[in-house]
Amino acid sequence: MISPLHLQPARLYQQTDVNNGKIWKIKNIEMAGDKSLRPCRRLLALLSWYCLVANLMKKLELYLFILSIGLCTFVQSEKTIDYTMTTRQLVWSITTLVLFVSIAIRLIKRPADVDLSVVKRLIFPVSVCFFLVSAVTLLWTHNIGEGFYEVLKIFLTIVYLFVAVIVLKDKETFMKAMVIFGLALAIYGIVNIIQENNLGLVRGPMANKNPFSSALFLFLPFCLYGILKGRVLSILTAVLLLCVIFTLRTRAVLLAVFIAAIVATFSNKKAFYVTIFCIVVIGAVLVFFVGADVYSTESLRNGRYDMWSQTLNMTIDHPFGVGIGSWEIYISKYIKNMNDFMISHVNQKEYFTRPHNGDLLVLAETSIIGLLLYLGIFVTALYYTFKSRSIYLYSFIIGYMAIEFFSFPRERPFHSMIITVLMALAILEYHRPVILKLPLRLRKPLFAYQHKMALAFAGIFVIGLLSVTIYDFAYRHKVELSLHRMYKAVAREDWDAVLDESDNYSILSDITPTSAPIAYYMAIANYRTGKKEKSFELFKEAERVNPYHVYVLMNLGHAYDKHGEFTKSVEIYERVVSLYPKFERARKSLRHTQNVQIINAMYFMNLFMKG
Description:
Layout: E1 7-18, E2 21-32, H1 38-74, H2 85-109, H3 123-136, H4 144-167, H5 171-195, H6 209-218, H7 220-228, H8 232-248, H9 251-265, H10 269-289, H11 298-317, H12 327-330, H13 340-343, H14 358-388, H15 391-406, H16 413-430, H17 445-491, H18 495-502, H19 518-528, H20 532-545, H21 550-562, H22 566-579, H23 584-610
Antiparallel strand pairs: 1-2
Subcellular location: Membrane
Organism: marine sediment metagenome
Transmembrane segments: 60-77, 89-109, 121-141, 147-167, 174-191, 211-228, 235-266, 272-295, 360-384, 391-408, 414-432, 453-474
């Protein structure tokens, strides 16, 4: 018999629901202090610590999620060419992996804590189908490295959508944090505007004016949510955000603001008429202080209309798509059909890496099937918001679609994260947990085991592919750092430094942000340092990476000239002339090489006659 003197209290944490919240209570349990019962005490201690850690993990997931958005709003590296791109992609991918692993651990330990029924919502199958269609186009894409990179970004977005839906159960804390981030970004913009004399130089923490303006727009739905709740800080933040947006005068974002305002107030006649009146007043004020240039369509007529029409021609020529990541390669084939403004690309004054229309980009690269699936993601999200009557969501999702029609915000990590968060909130507003009631014949251990194994394989696949994504982003960040130093070396004509910095590329990243192959710069550096044979091989490699780049072709033709291969040189120059009919330098080189061919033919004919 155990003496009462040996009884010791043990503590066990119990979770209870109070007012839809979660409170942890400590229950004292009298336990014998006999050595034979020590394992039981240890087990209960482990359980109590697990309960604390599980609850802490759940809280930390939300704070880590908020932190990731904050970092992707402001973190930047001036040592890369685009100082916001690769750094933020690394932050985004790493935090997504950490959050997914944390959710997976919670799912293993406490399955009821994670609502997996959400993946049955239509938006997830549509997103996965878009990912698969994009991945299939890798089979015929010209640049496998860029295509693989784009596919990984799509995959990351889908996982992030799942993570956001699971993590954002405490919506109020997240909304307040987003309003604070929006306020900080608006103040950043105001300071930047005061410091710069030229509005074109105002870029905030977003690389240039256009993505900065659209980033300001993407904070407005969180402010509207707070305004509907009567929060003063949300009103102040919205006013500051709109002031900066109207000061920057980015036309696509102004249009998006007006569309979002009209859609948000459409169901209320009085508010709708007030909105129309405000739009007219704001438009008149802009004309008075800025002039009618704010509504000019010159840039649309001079540039974007040409790119759109030629992108449609590209789609007609390639009905299954040119392959994801290959638009920037193939567009050079269609420059000859563009106006003189666009042909300045030949003189390296303009570079085309996107058609300034996200929908057309998807159409050209992944075919009409890819476009329908991509639009299906937005349509599904809008359906959820309309059914749940979430004004703050559907009005700004439509506004984002307007921006994407004139730009390509999806390329930026921050913009992709925020639109994904808005879609996650749309799912949460609409979704109700589904309790699966299996028939008796399926309630067998074998079925349960198979179900768990399927989840385990899915989790391992996601974690593995996220790890590959992080590696790819980290490698591209390393290449960007090297390219930044390489450009500086080219400017000071330090060709040895160019060779050192450009030797870090591989098939994962073999093209610069301006569509020029990295091998092209290596070829020039080798030529300048006297390594002409290696330079010749590198020009061939550059031509394989981008067979339509004007200066790659011109230098390759020149290299064939130097090696006496005039027939191939003429073929190269004829390709340049067919791609760029108004490029006079190519015509001169072609005529010169043809004259050399004629002279050589006459010389050998004379030798033959004399012999």
